[in-house]
Structures are given as C-alpha cells and as structure tokens.
Design a protein that fits this description.
Elements (H helix, E strand, L loop, with lengths): L2 H4 L14 H18 L2 E4 L5 E4 L8 H15 L5 H4 L3 H18 L29 H20 L6 H18 L14 H17 L6 H13 L5 H6 L23 H4 L1 H6 L1 H8 L12 H12 L19 H13 L4 H19 L15 E3 L2 E2 L4 H18 L8 H8 L1 E5 L4 E6 L2 E6 L5 E5 L7 E2 L8 E4 L19 E7 L2 E10 L4 E9 L5 E9 L3 E14 L13 E5 L4 E5 L8 E5 L4 E4 L3 E6 L4 E5 L10 E9 L2 E3 L3 E2 L3 E7 L3 H9 L1 E3 L1 E2 L4 E6 L2 E6 L5 E8 L6 E4 L2 E6 L2 E8 L3 E6 L2 E5 L9 E7 L2 E6 L5 E7 L4 E6 L3 E6 L1
Antiparallel strand pairs: 1-2, 3-4, 5-6, 6-7, 7-8, 9-15, 10-15, 11-12, 12-13, 13-14, 14-24, 14-25, 15-22, 15-23, 16-17, 16-19, 18-21, 19-20, 20-25, 21-22, 26-28, 27-30, 28-29, 29-34, 30-33, 31-35, 32-33, 32-36, 35-38, 36-37, 37-40, 38-39
Helix pairs in contact: 2-3, 2-16, 2-17, 3-5, 3-6, 3-17, 5-7, 6-7, 6-8, 7-8, 8-9, 8-13, 13-17, 15-16, 15-17
Length: about 800
Amino acid sequence: MSNGESLRIRMIAWHKASENEMSGRIRRILQKWLPYADRQFEDWSWRPACGHFFGGAYWYGLETAYTASVYALLAKHSNYEEKLTGIPREEVKRKAIAAIRYLGFTHDTGPEDCVRAEGRNHFCSLTKWGGRGQKFFPASQTGVTVASFGLSAWLLWEDLDEETRYLVANVLTSYADRWCEEDPRNGAYHDTQTEENAWTAGGIAAALALFPNHPQHEMWKKGFEAWSLNAITTPIDRIAEPRSINTVTFHPDFTTENHGFAHPGYICAGINLRGIHAVFSLMGDEPIAETVLYNNESLYNKTIKVWAQFDGLAVPVQGQDWWYNRQHERQFTHAFMNVIHKDRDASLLERRALAIIEGIQNSNEQGCLLEENGEQCIISGYQTAKDMEHTSAKDLVTSCLLHLFGGAGTDVSDSDEMADRLSGVYVYPYGCSVIHRTRDSFSSFSWRNRVMGLTFPAKGCWSITPLPASYTGTVNFEVDSPRSLLFNERFVLQTERENIRAYEDGFGAIASFMRGDGELRQDVAFVSLSDQKTVYIERIQVLKSCKIAEMNTGMIGIRNERYSAMPELAQGRKTLYFPDQTVSYEGFYGREPNRMTDFDPTKWVQVDEEIGYVLFGSQGIRYVNQHEYPKWKGVEDILILNRRSEETFNCPSTLAPFVVVSLPNRTKEETNAIANQTHLFTCEKDGVVLLECEGQLVFTNFNTSGLTVQTKRESNLKLNRFPLYEGNNRIEENTYFWSGKLDAFTSGFLSSEWTLEMIDARQTGSCTLEISALPNRLYLTNRREKIASIVLHHAKGYRRMIELAPDSTEILDF
C-alpha cells in the first residue's frame, strides 16, 4: 500500500449534517466568542502561514488546538454569519489552518528547530509538545490536543496543502502508534484513571476516524477499544469481563476520586473525553463503538444526574478546587446522554446548562465565556480564567457537532416530574457521601476526603458555595512550624468514626475527628430533615493544652457574582438580615482588600431572602466580603456562624455545643418565626443534644454507648399544642418532657405524626399528661384529678377529640 493510499482520508458525511435548535444555539455562542478569540491570534514567523492563539504556549498545545476547532467548525458551517462576527469566512479559515500548521511544526514529529512561542508558562515556553520522553500522564494527556487537532484538520482537509496534511498525519499516527499497544491504567482512589484512559482513547480515535486505510488501523482499533472500555469500570466489571477489562476506575457506587476527593469534573471525564469518538463516528457515518457507551447510563443515573442542580452542574459534594462555572463541560455530558443515549432528563439539563452559558456570555461585553477580565482572575502563577476560555469553547464545539450530525436529541422531561422522581436520599458508601434531594433543595454530608456538609436552596451553587470546610470549619493553632493537611486544620480529610442513618426523606450523619496534633476532638452531627431544613450540631473537646489563633466553625460559602444578564442569579450584592440590623455587601473580584465585619452572637441570620440560619451556642459571627483570592474559583464570600479568636486552653474541657438550623428557601420573616419555634432541650446526660423545630425532634448522641435519656424544655405559658414523638411524652406544668432510648453514636430525627391540643389552654399549667407513642398506637394517661379535654391532630389533616377521665389511661390504635 502506498503512503498516499494509507493516508487517504475518510470523507465527512456532510449530507448528514442539519442545523437544528440545539446546534444553532451553540453556533451562535461560538460566533459571539469568535471576535474575542480573534484578538488572541498571533502570527508565528518560524514557518510560513502559521499562527497560534492565547499565547501559543499553554499546556499540551491546548490553547491553539481547542481554538482552532472553533475556527474550523465556523469556517465550514453553512450558516456561519460573518456579518455578525465581522470576520470574513476566508479569514476564519486562514487562521484555523495557520493554527493547524503551528501545532504540526511544533509537535515532536515536526522539525527539531520548531518550538512553541515564549510564554509565561515556563514548563511549555520554547518547547515542543507531544510528550516525547515524558512519563505516561503528561505524554498521554496530549490525546485531548490530538483529538481537537485532528477534528480541525478533518473539517478543513480539502483546504489543506500537502505539507500541512503530512504534518497532521504525522501527529495523529504517532500518537495512535505510541499508545495503541499500551495497557490501560488502573485506579479509583485519590487519582482516578478514568480521565487518562478516556483521553488516550480520544487521541487514538482521531487517527482511527481520519485514516481508515492505514496499515495500523486494526491495531489502532484494538487499542482504542481497550482504552475506551476501561475508562468507566467498577470491581464487578473486572470480574465479569476479565479478558477485556483489567482496570477499576470507579467505586462500586459509581463515585471516583481525583485531586484527592470525589470531583464532579473527573466523574464525568469518561463520558466526555471518549465521547469525541461518537462525534467522529457521526461525522464519518460510521457506527459508534459499544466500548464508548459502556457504563455511561449507570454512571449518569447513579451520580451525575442525582447530583445535578437546576443549571445542569453536578454539585461538588466534597468541595471544588476549580472554577465554579463549568456549565460548558457539563453541557457536553448532558448533550451526549441526550443525543446518543436518548435520556430525556439529559435533554432538559442540557438546555438549562446552555441557558446559563448564554446568560454569562451575554453579561460580558467581549463575548467571552467566563470572566470579562479573565486575565486578572489568577488560578496559579501561569493560569488565569482567560486560559480556561478555550477549554470551555472546545466543549461547545463537540456539542455543536454532536447535534449537527446527530440531531437535537430526544424530548425533554417534564421539569416537575423529574424533580419529584429524583427527590430522595442517596447513600454512597464508597464515595463516603450521603445526599438528600427535594424539589428545590439539596443537602449532603461527606465523611472522607473532605468532611463537610452542604445545604443548598433552590438556586444551588449560585447561592451557597461548596467550601471544603463547610459547617465543620477551620482551626488555626499557634505552633512553631506549619503543619500538613493531615492535621485537619484547613479542612478535615477523614474521620475516626462515623455513623450514617438514612431515612426515606432525610438522613442523620454523625462523625468524630481530631484537629491538630491531638489537641482537639471535634464531634459533629448533620441531620437533613424531610422539610428541607438541616441541623448541624458540634461538640469540641479539648484533650490537651493548646493555643488557637482562630477557630471558625459553621462556615458557609456565599456566592456573590454579578452577571448583568442574570440578575435573578447574580446581582452582585448580598444582604444579611439580623433581628436588629441589615447589612449589604457588593461582590467583585480584586480592586479592594477584603471587607470583614464581626457581629455579636444572635438568634438568627438570613442571607438574601434565600436561606436562613437559626443559631444556638455561637461565640460570634463574621462575614468576609472577599475580593482577594489565593486561587480564583468565582466571587464568593464567607459567612462564619461560630467564631472564636485567639484563645488558650490550659486543661482538658468540653466546649458548649454549637447548633445551626439551616432554612433553605425561607425569608427573613419565616426565619424569625421558625427561630421562635425552635427549642433546645436540656438533658442530664453529657454528649446528648436534642432540638425541636416545627414538629420534628432532632437527636444526637455523641457517646459510644446507647442511652435512655429524659429531656425537657420549658413551654410558653400560652402554648396549648404539643407535638408528640415516638417514645414517652409528658406534659407537666408548662414543661414538656421527652424520654426514649438513643443508640450509641447516632443522630437522626423523629417526625411528629400527632399533635396534642388542650381544648382549654388554662389546663396546660395544671395538667399532667403522659403519652407513650408507638407506631400505630398511643397510650394516653391523665395523672390529675380533673378531666383532660384534648384534641389529637394527625399530620394528614384529620383529628380526634378525647375526654380523659382523672387518673385514667386510654389506648388508641390507628
């Protein structure tokens, strides 16, 4: 076979391409981005007709490859509107080809004297790309570059000269040859290999798609199938398919870890990165390999969809170390599941993600996809938000082509039906998180990697951010030398023990962990109730003498973005309401130092009419209106609900419990009303905390043994209604008592099925009633010498009137 024959290209099935609602929306976003990208283009004089984007020396050549794919798509798109962009189609095509040539010359297979431009990333500046001589991770990661590079070249193949075509062929075939006979990598903890296996498959897929007659094609295919099949694998898959699956990249509950925690971006990587093969296949009118579809639906249904908030983003239940606005990446995840797997929920979530993408872009005068002045938003010494523009654009290119050649997808789910269906409790024993969804709230607790809780109102991450120290907080000790992350000061990596109790409509989580070098033990409980509320309970024990510089618990991240086209989500101001004052804070990045305000302990605080917090045992409140960030993720403030400044502990002791009742989707008036109806009980047993709020009794037993407890709370003299809870209830002279057995080291809640009303409120101060509540049965005893006239109200709306004779007992079955 001649060299020309082996490099004969597969023709693109343009007759299959058809503009539709979804491809059109995405194309218009890319067109609006084009003038911004065009200002990032520079000619490169080392070889004729070459140029690069965004400095030309970012990691792996991504900046130029990703942007070139935008140019190539628009250059060939029949509906490209050059009047709107101001850039003639021929100019778009010229720059796309210049970028392809630049990447071809500066690749390892290009002339030795051709290196990339000089830039601020010293790792890449004046070097070649391609991974020659490098270890697996950086060398294989060029697969994402190769995939976009190959896509751009394929779209423009008819316009490329012979020299450029050979440059392209050399890049694609060298990658496929290098990796097609390597074994996929194994790993799920700390650094999942799903990403590596998927991007390697994606790189090989480019050569596989373009050059069907190449003598190595069958070898490439075999390698591609191995890498793509092994991208999303669990232990049971390895057992079921031992000949073809030799990796485990996901836990059995379809969670996985990267950067040391369950990271939504990497959980989706297997779908996204190997998904480029589906785009290539549709463009070439070829079948999509089954290995690219393997486990997609299980992963999507068990994690991604369950974690998705209203805008399609997967909630980072163990925190986030990248920027928050990753809707572009998730948009492709949902697009793939919509078009390829015909998932109606994905169809809805994709459209929601796209609406946010449009809203952010329409808020930026330059047409950029993330931040108006992205170069000022520092992620690292050589990475800014501007460097993430081309990454976001690349996801839109693949989504656009997916729809252009694959159609708009399936019908959308009914929004209300989907919300109801996804509501419930989900436990991830291997990912070490529990999630409770309702129609317009989301709560979670994580007990490994990042020990933290989250309570989100309807607007999700646009209201509250997933700080890795959410609720559990930070502790800074006065010590002679810095301590590592293992000392759990900035956030908590793991617990010493934990217990998770799942209910049908909520959960109770309890955990214990050390702070510092054994100085403090922090016991926490996080209870998610059936009515969206959550309760965080904290007990800190001082185990040995120490001095703290600062201890901040009950920490809440507050999103404070400004996007002019989305004032309902990001108006650029947050208002805090207290019982006796109101304070507002402008949200913006840079320009001013942080503004910190300290407040005295208070009964409640409410944020922006979106979420309220009822407090018990707070030592002080601080609001940090952040403008300075060590690493940009978005504009987020920090609300500290329990702040201790410098303090010395000279001997072992136990600090008073601190309790937060979080109220998503409640106004300040509702927060105030609920605060007045929320009561802590007193208990003779140490380590026991009980709280009552709106017909629910939250309990926590931090002790390592089960206890039978008796607790009480004083009643309002005018109160004549008493919720009844499973266990023993007693009403005596304006005091309500509850007693029952609490299991060892446990937390949870009891819901009141019945409420007892005294018909004559004057009886309350002189009555003694005992009610033993069991499932489907009540024992009512009147211990006084007068008739007790009561009404029992059931939670479902019906009631029953009872006259209890003096010193008598009545048994009621239901």
